[in-house]
Amino acid sequence: MADEVVGTAAGPGPAGAQRGVGAVAAARSWHRRRGPGPKPGRGPGPLVVWGPGLVVMLADTDAGSLITASQSGARFGYAMILPQLILIPILYVVQEITVRLGIVTGQGHGALIRARFGRGWALLSAGTLLVSVIGALLTEFAGIAGVGQMFGVPTAVTVPLVTVFLLALALTGSYGRVERIGIALGLAELAFLAAALASHPDPGSLVRGLGSAPLGDRSYVLLLAANTGAVIMPWMVFYQQGAVIDKRLSITALRRARQDTAFGAVLTQLIMIAVLVAVAATLTARPGAALNSVGQIAAALTPYLGHAAGTVLFGLGMLGAALVAAIVSSLAGAWGLAEVFGWQHTLNSRPGRRTAGFYLTYAAIHITGAVLVLASVDLVRLAVDVEVINALLLPVVLGFLLVLEAKALPAGWRMHGPRKYLAWALCLVVIAFGLYMAPATLGWV
């Protein structure tokens, strides 16, 4: 992926991007300052633009999501495949809004909230983001530690090594380089597609599963809520909006950026389906197998894949998923807080006096996550708590996103008519499932 598409340096964005007709002129001025851009009618190609959407979607299939998919396959076989397909447009609709907000206004999510609603609401959004990011990092570090234990490497070695790697990654001085590394790590998740094919699922059972939805079973509804409520993480919104800015995408790149997001949404859900299928296909050989850790999931695959293949495939996929999610969530946290507090924030500049707040935040997030995992917290319970936290935070995050789309964008770039109502309805579905899941998961009902 190219480090730069148009212009020379990311700036603060158009100051007037929040006000009616003036926002149009501000947006045009913003993009003129970033360079001449491609010839009229010709936008940059996919290899130049693609990246932010693919990275954020690969991060969406993180360690916690993979365990949820495994439990879905173990408990209900192929009956959870159709919901995974239905989640594709929900993912796309939400993340496409972040693309438009970032490219058209030239401002990150936190900066837009501060400009539109004031510092108090911006601090609320920053607090929401920080809680979600720390929870995500704990889950990812726990997943990485689980992979290490599968191969005999203790947590006390795995977690510090990964922390150093992630800290060093941000010091490369190039957003493009970080993006390429993130994609390479995330593509390790394709190992799950190989695992699904190697498990030899029965075609007839797959077709029957697509038509099965036992909504009368409370356990099924809870797992459905878990899958739906976890499809959008708060840090995904902040990351993709910040990434299209740090990548310096112009309005001419918007169509390609949407394609990037759509492709990523399809790929991440296919990976979830692959995990579900691989586990469901082996269920007859290991009925009732516990699937609460990386090692247990790998063991459940041994009847068809063999011990070595099952361990390597799931270990590789889980490691890639956890690493790319750790990169995305921590960058989202650092970008979001820097936007709220007005710090300079870009991976295209090495640490210095002006970027100190951004890089220190990035480092502090990783160190906090590593210390908590090394303190031997209850990792299984932690994964449950993180799901609940994300579910409770979604109304705040999606609420800000939808209002910004309706108010911060120039009229010509907003959703209108049926498209607008569909987007709001899909977001409300995600919020409703998340809130439904939270009390049940906590044992309140």
Tally of helical segments: 20
CATH class: Mainly Alpha
Q: Indicate the CATH architecture.
A: Up-down Bundle
CATH domain topology: Amino acid/polyamine transporter I
Region (Disordered): 1-20
Membrane topology: Multi-pass membrane protein
GO molecular function, one term: manganese ion transmembrane transporter activity
Main location: membrane
Task: Write a short abstract of this structure.
The protein is an all-alpha fold and 445 residues long. The chain has helices spanning 20-33, 46-49, 52-60, 63-76, 81-105, 109-117, 119-150, 155-169, 175-186, 191-198, 203-210, 218-229, 234-246, 254-281, 294-300, 302-305, 307-341, 356-374, 379-407, 417-441.
Walk me through what this model shows.
With 445 residues, the chain is mainly α. The chain has a single domain, classed as Amino acid/polyamine transporter I. Helix content is 72%, strand content 0%. The protein has helices at 20-33, 46-49, 52-60, 63-76, 81-105, 109-117, 119-150, 155-169, 175-186, 191-198, 203-210, 218-229, 234-246, 254-281, 294-300, 302-305, 307-341, 356-374, 379-407, 417-441. Helix 10 runs parallel beside helix 14 (254-281) and helix 19 (379-407) runs antiparallel to helix 20 (417-441).
